[in-house]
Amino acid sequence: MQFLFFRRHPDFTLFWAGMFLVNLAVQIESVTIGWQIYQIGRQTLSIKESAFLVGMVGLAQFIPMFLLTLYAGSMADRHSRRTIVMISLGVEILCVLGLVSVAHEAAPNVTHIFWIAAAFGAARAFLSPAASALVPMLVPKVEMPQAISLKSLSWQAAVIIGPWIGGLLCAISTATAYEVTAGLYLAGTAIILFMRVNTTPQRQPGSQIAQIKEGLVYVWTNKIVFGAISLDLFAVLLGGATALLPAFASDILNVGAEGFGILRSGPAIGALLMAAALSRWPLKRHAGRRMFMAVGAFGMATVIFGLSKNIYLSVAALAALGAADMISVYVRQTLVQIVTPDHMRGRVSSVSGLFISGSNELGEFESGVVSRFIGPVGAAIFGGIGTMIVTGAWARMFPALRKADRLDGADQASEETIKPQSLTASAS
């Protein structure tokens, strides 16, 4: 079945394969940076201070993403989306080569790594909305759910394999890990180069500022979409346990670089299993309620992880965390990608990407700051409890999202429709 889908859509197949290699590279690079920063910190600093340094990597990536994402989304609605993807990947390749150079230094400079992380953040600010908006141009709208499912499976597979490989490579050397990352980036970029489809969207009238404002208005007025992506922002921001994994692996669970890679793969294992389940049994009823239940479970799993002193329980908690997060991702992406008109997909994807980067990169910073005062264990428990509190608050603040019933109703939604009521049969 999937084989036939790939045969029908060769450009999607090329993009899917290329982005799998790129995502694999991103995961190895992310693991390696976190491990390298923590190990450098532990040479002279305490566990709390070293965990704080790891959190600062997230802040370094978030600041340029925050400043550039909305502009990048507008660019994705005005220019060739494939060209933007290629330029962004070119910048990321240069960043990885910079990390290779730093890793070969006798005494790597943490400041240089932070600057490179910031450059990564700037490149991803342009890559994310362009790549997200590109997918609907590669397959017919009626086949979008399957394309989204395959894209999610590819990403989750990379998230599982990447940290494991990254942990093994870190055990050899950080330089080796970065060199492998560079090779994967180059291979993925080369595959995407073979795409032939026209990826330039229909040019819309009005200034760039006006177009950015239009995207913001769309998200703000569509309360279901706004509620879904803002829930993800605050819940995952507080529950950013993965940012603390170097500290847990090195000094709490004492499992070393190999164990660190296994821990990093834990959330993705759960997410991949859930993505496979959703592709086989998609959410047909009570989507909003189930999303809230999943985010609450995400918070509970974070607390369990923080309390665990056993590697097997920790991995199981992380897997449960990843499975719960996948439900939230599935609901959000289905709403945003299928319902949003094509000429606005770049801008709306940039707003969604800004919230996602806030929950991930800024969440790493939040975890690092909290761990500086109460330690990694306390930070994980605090974040998990905070996530559950936010879930309850959002359920009360966004009743339409809580009551959202059918996601498949979006398949028949008009591309020009932006009213929240069109997204679900039971939303009020």
Features:
428 residues; mainly alpha
Short summary of the structure?
The chain has helices spanning 2-8, 10-42, 47-76, 81-103, 110-134, 144-172, 174-192, 208-221, 223-238, 245-252, 256-280, 287-307, 311-339, 345-397, 399-403. The chain is mainly alpha-helical and 428 residues long. It is globular and about 55 Å long.
General description of the model:
- The protein is mainly α.
- It has a single domain (8-199, 208-423), classed as MFS general substrate transporter like domains (Growth Hormone, Chain: A), CATH 1.20.1250.20.
- The chain contains 15 helices and no strands.
- The chain has helices spanning 2-8, 10-42, 47-76, 81-103, 110-134, 144-172, 174-192, 208-221, 223-238, 245-252, 256-280, 287-307, 311-339, 345-397, 399-403.
- The longest helix has 53 residues, at 345-397.
- 58% of the residues are buried.
